[in-house]
Amino acid sequence: MVDMVDNHNDDEGPDLGRTYHSGPVIMRGPMIPEADANAGLLSSGGDTDWLHMDPWRVLRIQAEFVDGFGALAELGPAAAIFGSARTGREDPTYAAARKMGGDLAKAGMAVITGGGPGIMEAANKGAAEVGGKSVGLGIELPMEQGLNRWVNLGITFRYFFVRKMMFMKYSSGIIVCPGGFGTLDEMFEVLTLVQTHKAPSMPIVLFDRAYWQGLFDWFSNTVKQRGMISELDPDLVIRTDDPDEAVEVILRHRG
Description:
The protein is of the alpha/beta class. The protein is built from eight helices and ten strands. The strands form two sheets. The protein has a seven-stranded parallel β-sheet with strand order 7-6-5-4-8-9-10, with helices on both faces. Helix 2 (54-72) runs parallel beside helix 5. The longest helix has 19 residues, at 54-72. The relative contact order is 0.11. Belongs to the LOG family. Its EC number is 3.2.2.n1.
């Protein structure tokens, strides 16, 4: 119920007039709306700008969390495989990601990717081919083509941060194949959360040592020398060129 009372302070400051209560929110003076919430609810017409306001976005965000938790709650042990959407099917890394996805699925782990083409498609394909759980967590983007056909459990998200939460909550390890900004974003998100103990410790495997060498040179020669990371930070990850080793590391730590 909306409550209106007079508000007047004789001690100090200007008189802002009456106070308008709308739930936990109070408004005074020019901030008081012309129509109350009940009138807006019962109105049959008017503009639809409210659909694009932050309070309505909160409900959409909440709905995405509910959908994601509901779909993945019974997934069981799972590992995420990140990598570029641009990797071609003739690329050796595509074959490696396909093998890693298949081997993880054979061991009873679900394989979670971003659901797109390239490395994501390869990992999903490997898991699906052996009858495993092949999960795709897609994202609404103008250039995206939707979930690849090897996904047998898929969700498409509107918000990146909800999607990232699903990766973190339901993965007990990650393998990061060569990729660009999206892959790096996902990798550093996991590294930050694990390093700061905001997420449980988990194996983080970087596949293709040569691809990641420049990044680790920068860590050692610039970032570390400037005192921005500690001695232990690079030890958060394991680098390998062997798909079998990558899978073995994940399986040793599975939930």
